[in-house]
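> tool_call: predict_assembly(chains=two)
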Amino acid sequence: MAIRYGRNLQIYVRGIDISGEMNEISTLSEQEMADVSVPGVQHQLYPGLAKDSGTIQTIYNSTDSAVFVAMRQNTTDDYGMMIAFGSTAGNPVYASNNVTLKANSIKGIITDINRANYSFDTNNYPFEECKLIYPKGTITATGQAASYDGGASTGLGGAGYLQVFGVSTGTLVASIQDSSTDAWAGEQTTTCTFTAASSAESQRITISGTIKEYTRAAYTVTSTCTFAVALKRY
Amino acid sequence: MIRTKIDTALGTIQGLEHAPKVPSVLNPPFAFPALRPTDPVTFDFTAKNATLVYHFYIEVLINKGATIEQAQDDLDPYLQNTGSSSIKQAVEAIDWGSDADTCRITGVTNYGPAVYGGVEYLGARLGLDIWV
């Protein structure tokens, strides 16, 4: 089992990499438990819907990252967040495309650097523990990335997560392909295709049915693009 | 470049000799930056090692001269919070540009005898944290 240091954390919010400003992140996944005990018979709790939340501690500087400015000023839209515990294919990733800012604060201490804190909740889907299929990288031509061995085929569907950091011109059409043999000689199928992106953004796409053992990111571009892809298997 | 900028800042203090590193020859009053001997660098303050902290000290040395009392009077102005001889004021005014983000003189330690090259001076150290 690989133990990972926090220094390798990557965190992306709506296509902006804020890793270099982040000092600490924590998430909390909890469920409300309803008491359905039958008096005189048994004590029983019934789980409700999952609700995830989290906090980010960052350095606050005078030229704040655009995402923080946006998060403080826009309280209506959800944000896609990807927390990657490393930058290698197969590293675990916590991802949600429905993060909403709950609270933020700035803290200035005379004998310390200025800091900022952000609290967020997730709407709809909670954080999903995924695998990093395509670590944040830049491509300049249509093609496919190296494959990742998921260990086995799964048949309950899943979800694909995309973070787009930049598209020079035109669009990026990213997809996830899968194969049973890792040959990629025509036997592969397209598991899911993300919506064409022309600028920084984040997406989540539901996958139904079987996801074969080997997966890889594929991309169709007409310019320089930077993006990352993660996959959740149910 | 960090040492160079510290050295330039020390040069704005009239009458203070200075160098960017521990010198082999010095002529007090003299000041120079040196990395703290223990834990001189804090890595990984943010993810991807985007932020780190250098822990320096600035050594200030005064000839002991005729009396130790006079040596203290000569040393103390360099340790003040503000003033034309204030090392804290001079160093915290550095425009780091792309070399660093910010800095802080954290305090004064080792006020007393200091030996360099076999010669005993009166000295003090100003702690300096530089965020990069």
